[in-house]
Design goal:
Chain lengths: 174, 174
């Protein structure tokens, strides 16, 4: 992205505790603290009525039978939505409503995914190549990661199966 | 775009009156009322705090020494901004401030263009291929095309020169 205002990376060590298979996590981390995803954004302001836009790129990979994924969050102003738009690769948006309903939106190039107000959201790279998406959200949204930490993650886990992926219960969820 | 909620096209006849060279316009129109640009959008609502996202594609072309371009508008809620992000091709965003200052942002793949609150904006395809951009703006922005019509267009025209483009005064501007 040219004309962006910021960039950050998340490494494997930043994602400690997210995955069920802690042995596989430790083994992969021992190979090196690789970048799992990075975000380049354009953030004109954080005022109501303004908009933040960015590009996120996530590497392909697995930890046990789980795919590389983002930590997941809800917006600090929880009624603020978000729009994702696929650019490259194949991913999922894992969405969880305030009353615990899970929805999965498959995202490929040119796919729109709308994150409705109040829904927790996380992206998952289920492909063999980088997952690249653009996103935009109201500039006053903010992010709250604590809701995920307090509940032991999201209600379900996306896990790899022979022909793709399926959902299982997250046994750490409280 | 998959999962979009709407689509529209603008044809040459919809752009009557925008161009200085009316003879060239009439000659091109006589060849057929071609689609000049189309927009596919995702519009979850028109409420404050929501966001509209879309993809716009504009054909390459010229009318006299002017490039194919959009009509231009200001937002009905004029303090609402917009973000464009280049996908394919080469274009310009022509921006005009409330006191008549013109700014031009060149847009190629992965270029961000921010349209600040209160600025009139129009996109121009200066290349030989389709110009494709994504855009997003606050869902309550609205569009006002009358400001352009009342003033005889924008203050400047983008015109082709040997090595690219330049700005000239729009003699219809009042
Ligand atoms: Mn978000
Ligand atoms: Mn606009």
């Amino acid at each position: 992205m040219s004309n962006g205002t910021g960039h950050y990376e998340k490494r494997l060590s930043d994602l400690a505790g997210l995955y069920a298979d802690q042995t596989a996590f430790a083994a992969l981390l021992a190979e090196g603290d690789r970048v799992v995803y990075d975000v380049t954004e354009f953030r004109p302001s954080e005022k109501a009525g303004d908009v933040i836009f960015g590009v996120t790129r996530m590497s392909p990979g697995r930890i046990g039978d789980e795919f590389f994924l983002t930590r997941g969050h809800i917006h600090a102003k929880s009624d603020r939505p978000e729009i994702y738009y696929g650019q490259k690769g194949t991913g999922l948006m894992q969405l969880e409503s305030p009353d615990g309903e899970t929805r999965i939106v498959e995202i490929g190039p040119q796919t729109i995914c709308y994150v409705p107000p109040y829904w927790i959201h996380r992206s998952v790279n289920i492909g063999d190549e980088d997952l690249v998406m653009v996103f935009c959200y109201p500039a006053d949204s903010g992010q709250d990661y604590g809701i995920i930490e307090r509940s032991g993650g999201m209600r379900h886990r996306v896990v790899a199966v022979d022909d793709g992926w399926t959902l299982t219960d997250n046994t750490s969820y409280v």
